[in-house]
Prior knowledge:
By secondary structure, the protein is of the alpha+beta class. It is 20% helix and 35% strand. Helix 1 runs antiparallel to helix 2 (26-42).
Amino acid sequence: MVRDGYFYALGLLAVAGLLWWFTGSMGIAVIPVLLALFFLWFFRDPSRRIPTGPGILVSPADGKVTEADWIETPDGSQLRLSIFLSVFNVHVNRSPMDGTVTQVNHKNGMYLNAMRADSNVLNEQNVVVLKNDRCTIQIKQITGLLARRIVCWVKPGDTLQRGQRFGLIKFGSRVDMLIPPDANLKVKRGDHVKGGSTVIAILPQADNPTGIVAE
């Protein structure tokens, strides 16, 4: 459980107690109680089995893959993977690989529907750049129509392990990820993924140029 869930739930339970005290009506008091239960459920943070193996990139978020296409960037062609998180998904974000955080850049913006193609440019967002001796990847936390706050627990210089929690987005959102062009993609548009446990791509190693990991 992310601790934010306890804060919301305790506040709502206090409201429920006050409503019951002043009105004597359980019917009115039950509304904030139900909301408190919702927040406890929403901020759940289940344990995940983190895959092991060289070059594996895991999903940074739970949700549905809405885009897996090549795009042109100032650094050349890269593969962009977009994951849409509905209000029913776990909203904790996890590191796709082992690496060092080199940049954390927050940008204010709008709160458009995260399914819109231009939301990755116009919406409020936070970009985390992660680097190791094999590659550099970019993870972008993007707000949505309901999401109003991005939480990031890391700063430049921090090291992350594959599957380690680094932040969350509250109440529906989108996470984009830019990965190297030589990655062997393991998911496609429409797939449902789980943060920290779904293998989304495998990077080729010097002694295994195909990027295929033997079972």
